[in-house]
# Entry
Amino acid sequence: MSDLKELIQNKISKEPYTGNGALQELSRKGIQLFNEQGIPTVKHEEWKYTRISGVLNKDFSYAVDSTAVTTADVDAVRLPGHEAANELVFINGIYHAELSTIRSSADELVILPLSEAAKGEYKSVVENNLGHSAKYHTDGINAMNNAFAYQGLFIAVKKNKAVEHPLYCYYINDARTNSVLSQPRTLIHVGVNAQVFLVEEEITMGTSDSFINRVSEVVVEENANVHIYKIQNEDSHSSCVKTTHVRQLGVSKVSSVTLTLNGGIIRNNLNFILEAPGCESHMYGLYCVKGETHVDNHTIVDNVMPNSFSNELYKGIIDENATGVFNGKIFVRKDAQKTNAYQSNKNVLMSDTASVNTKPQLEIFADDVKCSHGCTVGRLDEEALFYLRARGVGEKAAKALLLHAFAGEILEKIELEPIRGYAEQIISERLGFEF
Amino acid sequence: MLHIKNLQARIEEKEILKGINLDIKPGEVHAIMGPNGSGKSTLASVLAGRSDYEVTGGEVEFNGKDLLELSPEDRSREGLFLAFQYPVEIPGVSTTNFIKTAVNEIRKYRGEEPMDAVEFLKKMKEKMKLVEIDQSLLSRSLNEGFSGGEKKRNEIFQMAMLEPNLAILDETDSGLDIDALRIVAEGVNKLRDGKRSFLVITHYQRLLDYIVPDHVHVLYKGRIVKSGGKELALELEERGYDFIKEELGESVEA
# Structure
């Protein structure tokens, strides 16, 4: 582990951040906390089932040269519907404007380096929001990203604008010659009465080890409507920690769908901080994993003000030696009366060696709320399987039909047609569903 | 069509079927009656291939094949149909999609091309009329939130779509009011074509007023203890199952 510390320290000493203000402060605190905390071990309560140190123990290069990636390389990984999307390409953690395509006009969508955004019109947005996730994640992983947040990207959706072209963000690690550790960072501000679709995918090129430690903070103003779709479908040498931290500052609606198909160790942190009365939040997740993949979904819903509604549904299909973790925290603060918060986690284990750890955590300080949580872990319903087989459907097809239906409840929440179609396709392929 | 010889089966350590003999010829309707726990549903389950039951002896020949060697799906593909006593609810799978999958899996097994969409819809409409089932019901998740009658009608609808050689109705009448019973029975009667055979399992004679059997068998303690014509059902209705026990020389509890 000392190697990684050294790596980070070298990097900092080589490229010390020379700006000042919010970014400098965050970087300084990040370095300090990282030095104190290091990489969390399984003794850390929030990392009990996910041994991230095992992955980070490898010989990574940090932020290596990223100029080798060409447009043709990006072409190979573009998602369906990209012709009508704003495409934001990050290579080894750094935004590359020349590989990106911005189709929306500047009066709808603003894209700036965070270091610039921190100075101009968005100074107070950056000061008030950047690093807010650190209040909820006090471990070395988040700190490590904070140390380099000054290299991040600022995205603003202007008020009263419904952005027609969805934002496709590709976080690409170029691991064709080196093992790469990268730390993309974004701050996304969705203005009053604005609407936007975000689609995010982590991608590794090449076969060396890849680790992406991404933090995206999303600030949602009054009457805004935001959809966030995340897709992870990689090889076992690609691991990542993705933190999506959403602040709903005004009455607004945010919906998130997180899909995980494969990878090494995948940790999805998803936080919803409901800071205005009457917020609505939907959190959906589907993990359909096999091989040695380890997927960990940690979610937080923090209800601060009254009358908010949140609904959370995560489903897992775990095969072979794969492991799953679901940890869902719901806070209902003292003032958050009349909160409605629902949480459900359902898992199907497909092999004797597949496993899942699921843990709901509710901390309720208000006395007039409706909260529910539940989790299930089981096999495919034998009775349903027999019913289908007794009608002539083969065993394999019957299983695929049932699993497809199980997954469908999540996939149908994706409102962006090309992405829903794509998700449908990759899940169907995985399940051997051919109808 | 179906020859059952000395069939014995158990679930876990409990012997349930203790030597069943039964022959069903094409076009015949056989009814199996019997008190609760006599093994009626076990017989249906064993014939359909439910894995909870272990066959410990005997033979079953279906259309010249060893039925017990076949997987549940192959039994269906060979033309066996079981209408479930408790049809399973399957969220997220519509009846329409499911039945299309089933029809085409069976066609594939028989070396036929998948049914085209137009032909399939035409057939659906025709069979829907048969059991007075509504399109909206078939678009919903399979059996989810269906009433008892709707579930049973859906079973008969599926039977009509799959056109089996032998249909086993496992207590299809249980839990049905008289109107639902009539619809289900009429659906079955319309599928009687002189070639298709039926094995109707029921506790009550009532269903047999509508589906008139050629043969009635009484199953008791895992054996067929009495067989006769349709009048046997009426006799059972009048005298109850106790007369069977008396005939067998068992003492009848008051």
Summary: The first strand of chain B starts at residue 2 and ends at 11. The first helix of chain B runs from residue 40 to 48. The interface with chain A takes residues 48-51, 71-73, 75-77, 81-82, 84, 87-88, 90-93, 97-103, 105-106, 109, 141, 158, 162 of chain B (CB under 8 Å). The mean pLDDT of chain B is 91.
